[in-house]
Each structure stands twice: as C-alpha cells, then as structure tokens.
C-alpha cells in the first residue's frame, strides 16, 4: 500500500469505529487498538502533509448528531482533548505553552471521568437544556432524559449566578449501579451491558425518559462556559459551580508545576480503583482563564488542556483453548480459555474473542502467548498476540463449523459479524433462553419461576417451548430436585395468572427477533389482534404455482408491516418470517387455546394502558388541555395522582404560572419536572 492508500484506509476505518462508538455505543475494537491506529494515522499525516484533510478523524471530534433528537448548535464549541502518556509529553506541552504566554503557569488537575460528554444550559438560574457533544459544533438535545438525573440541579442556589451560561460535564454510571443493572439482566437471561461508559451514553439516547429515570446515572461537572462568568481561573470555576449546587467532584487540585502534576497522576493511578465510578486518566488544565484565552484551540482540542491516560494493566498469558458459547438468540461467541492470571487483583481465566473477524484480524491461535487487558469492560479481552513466542507447530484457527450445543451447522448472514446456530427449536441454550425471555418481568412476568427453574424444567424434559409451561401441574413439577409443595404451587399459580397479561406483552414475550417492547406495542395497537397480525394477504393469482403464491404473499406482508410508522424493513422481514413458520403458528395457536390474551382489550382501546404503572404524578399550573383531562390520562395509563409533592413523587407535570413554593420543593427533592408535551410523549 502506498502511504496515501494507507492514510485513506485508516481514516475510513477510524470513521467507522467512531460511528459505532459515539452513535451506536458499541466498541468493535478496544480503546487501546483504536488509539494505536489513530497514532499511526497521525504519524503518517505528519510525514505526508500533502494529504492533509480537515475532516480526518485525527483533527476532528469523533461524534455525530443522530436523527432521533432535535439538533442543537453549540453556542460554545465542545472539544475533545489531546492525549499524553509520559512526563516528557507534558514537558513538551509546557514548552509550547510558554512560547505563547508570559509569566508563571499554574495547572488544575482533575480526574478524567469516563462517560458521555454533556453540556447543560442554565437561564436565570434554572435548568434549560442539555445537549450531547455530537460532532463538537452541534449535538443532540436530550433535555428530558437529563432532567431525570438527580444530580442535575433544576434550580441553582447562591449568588453571582450568570444570567445565561453553560456547564460541561460527564454523565457517568457508577459501578454499583452498573453492576446492579447487570445483575437484573442476568436474572432475566438478557445479554449483559459491556461497560459503564457505553451504557451511560446509550441511556441518554433512550426515547423513553421514564426508562432513563430508572437508571442510576450521575452528572459530574467540570467546566463553565459563558460570556460573563464571575471567575478568572478554572479552579474558581469549579468552586463556584459547586456552590451553585452542581456535583463537582472534590478530587481536583491546584498544581504550581509539572512535578506536582506528576504526583497527582501517580496518586490517582493507584487510588482510582477505590472510586465509585470509572476514570481513564487525569485532565490537566492551565488555571488562568486569561492564559487559556491566549492559547486558544486547535480544530479538535483546547491548547490549554491535556489528558493524561492511565495505562490499562496488561498481562501476558497462554491461550489454552478456544471454545464457543451459544446465547439465547443463537448467536455464537468464541471464548478464549486462558492459563489463569492475575489482573488488577482478580484471577482471569477466560476472555471474550467477540467473533470470527476478530480472531482473524489478530490471528489468534490456540497455544499463543497473548496480551490480556481488563479495562472498563467486565469481561477481559485479548489485545495482541506475542508472535515471538508462537510455537513452531502453531496452526491458524479454524472457526467452529457446528454448534457446540446441538451440532447443527452454523450460519453467518451476509454483513453480520456473528455466527448463528439456526436450530432455534432444538438447541438447548436457545430453548432455555426463549423461555426465560417469555417469563421475564417485562414480558409475561411469571412469578415463581427463575432462570434455574427453567433449566431444571427443560433438562427434566417437562418443557421444550414456552407453550409447554401451560401444561405444568403441581404433581408434574414436585419430583424436581429442591422443589417444595409451596414453590410448586406458586409456580403453577404464577403461570395461571399470566393469562391476564395484556396482548402487547404477549407479543413481546414471543421473542420474535428485533421485536422489543416498543415494537410489540406498536404492532399490537396497529393490528389489535394476533389473528389480524398473522393474516397473510390474499390476492388473485394467475399462477397456479403454490410456492410463488406464498412468496408473493410474504413480500406483500413485509410491505404491509413496513408501512407502519417506525417499523423498518429488517423488523418487518423478521415478523413475517415468524408468522409464516408453521412451528410458530402452532405454538401461537396453543397459547390462544390456553387462554392467553391475543387481542387488545376494550379498555386499552379507550386509551387505557399501564405504561405509567407505579409512577406518581403531581400536576401544577395552567395547561393547554384542561387539568381534568390530564388527570384522566394519568389514571387511564395506570399512574397515580397526588396533590402535594413529596419524596415519593416521580414526576411533576409543570404548567404555566406554577406556584413558587411547589417549584422550590420539587427542585430541592430533585423531582423531574416535565412539560405538558413531554407528558403526552410518555403516554
Ligand atoms: N473502541 C473504539 O471503537 C473507540 C472509538 C472511538 C473512540 N474511542 C475512545 O474514545 C476516546 C476518544 O474519545 P473523545 O474524543 O471523547 O476524547 P477523550 O475521551 O480522549 O477526551 C475528551 C473528553 O473527556 C471528557 N472529560 C472527562 N473528564 C474531563 C475533565 N475533567 N475535563 C475535561 N474533559 C473531561 C470530556 O467529555 C471530553 O470530551 C479514546 O480514548 C478512544 O480510545 C474508542
Ligand atoms: Zn445449536
């Protein structure tokens, strides 16, 4: 490859990873590899300035705006940070600074929080807007979601508050909350979230702010931006922001020279392990705002700030064997079984290899000495192979051809990274997974059965599909190990009670690929009954060929589904595949005979749902609609109304001319305030 081709290909590759990372909250490669490639690109570009491109990932902030939210242009640009890895890098930076500014330079050292960048706008002391970093010049407006985060003050306190200003920070998901979310997912048999950063960033982009409110997010602030700020240094800025009620972490310090900066870095490289949230480094900023102004910005980052990245601990060990795991959807994940090794205080025996491409890219083979890293991810990963230690008789890895669970030949659809086991009905993890999904809280919510019981029931041959659950009796399950009379009764009662679960959740419980809660609800309300959904279009046929008649009908059904707002082609195809499959049709028929809800109930059609179940609302102020109308909507959708604000209030629906005492109380208690429109969005 010529240098030009290399540069072009690296730019393309990095743009792709950026898109995955910032828009889809997904990391296809480790940060370590990403940074290595970026560095490689920078070096090539430095050696070949003739190929300079102002849109190269080396000079631009990596994110983008999405179409799901309103796009907002930042009044003050949001930048990324340049990286340093050693004292020498910092000294070089200081040299560049001293060429531009006179006099002594003081620094503020802050921790670098690893989450999603956010800008909060305040007007007249009240929270007005929250916007993501996006591409740096414009971002996504996520106000409603951010409002649900308790540490975001809705009203500021204290004096000297500028009339209008912005404050920058990071939305993070502390470890404790992250682990709790994953524990809950594990119970429901769902895939685990990979790391707190991606989960925090993904949470901001949820369409349902009530869902965001359930997530234990925090907002840590570190930078004021505005035209007339009452401060002359960064450090003052932190103190002021704290006094106004923002959550500004206490760990920041002033350093009068780089030696002090290094001491701060060394201290936190060790102590960061005790912090409640993740940090991936330290940010060093020139303290004086006047000096900051003199220094200015590059296209990508301020010249007055520098990130110092902690190195992630890497150890080398032997890869004993590659095995394969099959998930509930049939997706196959290769797993590296390692010679046990200590990383950051835990013994690591296994690492994820993601997919066949990953193995091929790194040319990972059994018997290799590999470098393992445990960064922000819960599952450690292999970042490189030590080729110098590769045994002479080493053989390239041949990816599994058959399912390790049921021996069916694996398939890989075009454009997909993952292999799949197509034996949906006969592959044990898929059987168990589908049943676990069926009984999970958001689906049929069957009390009295846990993941282990499902395993037991399947292994004992008592059930093979979720429809079989409805044939279970106390007598049948009692012989199972550790099954007491009481728990057997609970189980059977729970199954019986699930027959009342509304149609949209039954539809979700069926486990049709790509049909999540929201899509299930859309389909349920659109078709109103399972029969209508399953009905294949009838048409007049010239052809007597039954096969082509069937494919014609399927094509038409996909069109029909695709025409429903927000139902894309992939979903439409998947639904059509499901309802055409005789096996699935049979199962659905059985469920219907057992008495499950297969149509929208009359009261649901009158606008009654349970989307607000468990939520308590206070309505205050003047609205477009009458208050009674709003109240009825809360109740019709399963919410509770209360006349006064308390710690138990989940939302305050805020109208015009609302009384100041209620406002203050809600602000103090950190109760999310939503507008009439935002409320309508929830129902
Ligand atoms: N694995 C992948 O596919 C992939 C893809 C793209 C980016 N990345 C990773 O993302 C990083 C690049 O992301 P980036 O452009 O967001 O830059 P960055 O994370 O290196 O640093 C800039 C950001 O740091 C944050 N920050 C945290 N604490 C701060 C503080 N006290 N003061 C100021 N800012 C603070 C801000 O949000 C700021 O935007 C790299 O480490 C890269 O490895 C990975
Ligand atoms: Zn299988």
TrEMBL record:
One of its GO terms (molecular function) is DNA ligase (NAD+) activity. Pfam families: BRCT (PF00533), DNA_ligase_aden (PF01653), DNA_ligase_ZBD (PF03119), HHH_2 (PF12826), HHH_5 (PF14520), OB_DNA_ligase (PF03120). SUPFAM superfamilies: BRCT domain (SSF52113), DNA ligase/mRNA capping enzyme, catalytic domain (SSF56091), Nucleic acid-binding proteins (SSF50249), RuvA domain 2-like (SSF47781). Zn(2+) binds at residues 403, 406, 421, 427. Its EC number is 6.5.1.2. The active site is at residue 112. It is an enzyme of class 6 (ligase). GO terms for biological process: DNA repair; DNA replication. The keyword RNA-binding does not apply. Keywords: DNA damage, DNA repair, DNA replication, Ligase, Magnesium, Manganese, Metal-binding, NAD, Zinc. Its cofactor is Mg(2+); Mn(2+). It catalyses: NAD(+) + (deoxyribonucleotide)n-3'-hydroxyl + 5'-phospho-(deoxyribonucleotide)m = (deoxyribonucleotide)n+m + AMP + beta-nicotinamide D-nucleotide. It comes from the Bacteria. One of its GO terms (cellular component) is cytosol. Residues 607-683 form the BRCT domain. NAD(+) binds at residues 31-35, 80-81, 110, 133, 170, 285, 309. DNA ligase that catalyzes the formation of phosphodiester linkages between 5'-phosphoryl and 3'-hydroxyl groups in double-stranded DNA using NAD as a coenzyme and as the energy source for the reaction. It is essential for DNA replication and repair of damaged DNA. Belongs to the NAD-dependent DNA ligase family. LigA subfamily. This is DNA ligase. The lineage of its organism: Bacteria, Pseudomonadati, Bacteroidota, Flavobacteriia, Flavobacteriales. The gene is ligA.
């Amino acid at each position: 490859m010529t240098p030009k081709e290399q540069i072009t290909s690296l730019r393309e590759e990095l743009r792709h990873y950026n898109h995955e990372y910032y828009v889809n909250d997904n990391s296809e490669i480790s940060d370590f590899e990403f940074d290595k490639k970026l560095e490689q690109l920078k070096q090539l570009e430095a050696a070949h300035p003739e190929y300079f491109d102002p849109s190269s990932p080396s000079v631009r902030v990596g994110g983008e705006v999405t179409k799901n939210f309103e796009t907002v242009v930042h009044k003050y640009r949001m930048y990324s940070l340049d990286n340093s890895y050693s004292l020498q890098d910092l000294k070089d930076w200081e040299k560049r600074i001293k060429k531009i500014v006179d006099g002594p330079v003081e620094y503020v050292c802050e921790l670098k929080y690893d989450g999603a960048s956010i800008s909060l706008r305040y007007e007249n002391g009240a929270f007005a807007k929250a916007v993501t970093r996006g591409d740096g010049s414009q971002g996504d407006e996520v106000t409603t979601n951010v409002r649900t985060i308790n540490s975001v003050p809705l009203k500021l306190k204290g004096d000297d508050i500028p009339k209008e200003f912005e404050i920058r920070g990071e939305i993070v998901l502390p470890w404790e909350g992250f682990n709790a979310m994953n524990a809950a997912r594990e119970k429901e048999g769902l895939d685990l979230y990979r790391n707190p950063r991606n989960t925090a960033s993904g949470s901001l982009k949820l369409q349902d702010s009530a869902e965001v409110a359930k997530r234990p997010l925090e907002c840590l602030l570190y930078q004021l931006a505005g035209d007339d700020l009452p401060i002359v240094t960064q450090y003052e800025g932190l103190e002021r922001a704290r006094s106004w009620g923002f959550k500004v972490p206490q760990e920041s310090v002033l350093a009068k020279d780089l030696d002090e900066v290094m001491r701060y870095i060394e201290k936190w490289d060790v102590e960061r392990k005790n912090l409640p949230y993740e940090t991936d480094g330290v940010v060093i900023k020139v303290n004086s705002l006047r000096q900051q102004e003199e220094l200015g910005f590059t296209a990508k980052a301020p010249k007055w700030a520098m990130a110092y990245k902690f190195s992630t601990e890497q150890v080398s060990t032997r890869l004993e064997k590659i095995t394969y795991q099959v998930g509930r959807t049939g997706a196959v994940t290769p797993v590296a079984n390692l010679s046990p090794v200590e990383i950051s205080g835990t013994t690591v025996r296994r690492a994820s290899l993601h997919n066949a491409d990953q193995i091929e890219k790194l040319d990972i083979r059994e018997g290799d000495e590999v470098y393992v890293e445990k960064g922000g991810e819960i599952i450690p990963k292999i970042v490189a192979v030590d080729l110098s230690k590769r045994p002479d008789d080493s053989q390239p890895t041949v990816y599994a051809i058959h399912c390790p669970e049921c021996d069916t030949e694996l398939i890989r659809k075009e454009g997909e990274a993952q292999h799949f086991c197509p034996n949906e009905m006969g592959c044990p993890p898929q059987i168990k997974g589908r049943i676990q999904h069926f009984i999970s809280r958001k689906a049929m919510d069957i009390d009295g059965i846990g993941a282990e019981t499902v395993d037991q029931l399947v292994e004992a041959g008592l059930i093979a599909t979720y429809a079989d659950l409805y044939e279970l009796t106390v007598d049948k399950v009692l012989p199972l190990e550790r099954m007491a009379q009481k728990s057997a009764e609970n189980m059977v009662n729970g199954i019986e009670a699930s027959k009342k679960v509304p149609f949209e959740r039954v539809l979700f419980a069926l486990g049709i690929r790509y049909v999540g809660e929201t899509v299930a609800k859309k389909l349920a309300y659109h078709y109103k009954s399972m029969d209508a959904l399953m009905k294949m279009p009838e048409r007049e046929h010239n052809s007597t060929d039954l096969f082509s008649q069937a494919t014609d009908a399927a094509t038409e059904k996909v069109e029909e589904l695709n025409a429903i707002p927000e139902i894309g082609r992939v979903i439409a195809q998947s639904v059509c595949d499901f309802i055409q499959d005789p096996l699935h049709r049979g199962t659905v028929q059985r469920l219907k005979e057992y008495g499950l809800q297969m149509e929208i109930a009359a009261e649901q059609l009158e606008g009654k749902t349970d989307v607000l179940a468990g939520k308590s609302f206070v309505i205050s102020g003047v609205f477009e609609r009458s208050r009674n109308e709003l109240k009825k909507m809360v109740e019709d959708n399963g919410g509770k109304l209360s006349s006064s604000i308390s710690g138990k209030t989940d939302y305050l629906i805020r109208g015009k001319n609302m009384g100041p005492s209620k406002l203050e109380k809600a602000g103090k208690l950190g109760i999310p305030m939503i507008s009439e429109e935002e409320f309508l969005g929830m129902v």
